[in-house]
Hints:
mainly alpha, 2 domains, 4 helices, flat
Amino acid sequence: MPKKQPKNYNIAIMQPDEIGALRNLVKEFVTKINSVDNEIELLKGDRKEIIEEYTDKLDMKTLQAALKVTKIQNEVAHRDTFDLFLEALNEGNEAS
Length: 96
């Protein structure tokens, strides 16, 4: 997700200054954040269950390392240069 540009205004001036309105806005914010946090915890539990389900079927440690490598490869802007670096590094590892 791209970073948001800094605001050119003071948000504190724009927020409600009446305590009732501010309290309602803060409660709304906290409710939404708590909802997202609860969903994250549920998803973490689901993820753990999936990993446990496949632990006896796959080498999970190696698979997770491969998934990390794949994610990095997909994020690289200059894939051809990245591949050259990998080749150079792998040649150095084969010599040792």
